[in-house]
């Protein structure tokens, strides 16, 4: 296997010329994104579509944004990431439809061996991260390698997600744990808030 194939399979690998080139590609595209202006809306969307492995029709990544490769980031329809998002995509980061990241969300697939000798020898590894549909990740959350988050989930701000989170829950904290299920009562409450807001809106 090549170093890239080892990386994608989750085995230990070393940086290679091929990986360095892909790293440089992402550096260039993120630099162009991060130095684009607020008037260049279409250009920003185009740059993200070129950078990521897959996007929906609509995607918005607020600069500044940083990632290692970009090509291993696969997002669904209407992905939104607020300022200062960092995605280390040594392994695939697969994100569903209607997912929102607050500011300073970090998704890490990258890890280094616990054993210092192997680590110092320059070997590293990745584990994929998967996020379902209709998920809101609060600001300053860190998602660790190997984590899967289900559908219809809210992750509280400042969380460190070290283990899988099931669907239809609010989870928060360090380490991130389920606080409670999202229920029919939540749906009724927020539907009513939506109705009141729309009735009051005069625009
Ligand atoms: C796309 C964007 O740009 S988003 C903009 C950025 N905004 C954010 O990041 C805000 C994120 N919001 C939160 O973190 C909110 O606390 C939510 C949505 C997770 C929960 O809100 P609520 O349902 O109102 O929960 P509530 O405040 O009642 O808290 C319930 C319990 O969870 C705890 N809790 C809530 N949020 C967190 C958190 N982030 N970390 C740890 N514990 C938390 C509360 O302390 C409380 O505990 P208690 O029952 O022991 O008192």
Automatic annotation (TrEMBL):
InterPro entries: Hexapep (IPR001451), Hexapep_transf_CS (IPR018357), LacA-like (IPR039369), Mac_dom (IPR024688), Trimer_LpxA-like_sf (IPR011004). It comes from Massiliimalia timonensis. Its EC number is 2.3.1.-. It is an enzyme of class 2 (transferase). One of its GO terms (molecular function) is galactoside O-acetyltransferase activity. Transmembrane segments: none annotated. Belongs to the transferase hexapeptide repeat family. It holds the Pfam family Mac. Keywords: Acyltransferase, Repeat, Transferase. Residues 4-57 form the Maltose/galactoside acetyltransferase domain. It comes from the Bacteria. This is Acetyltransferase.
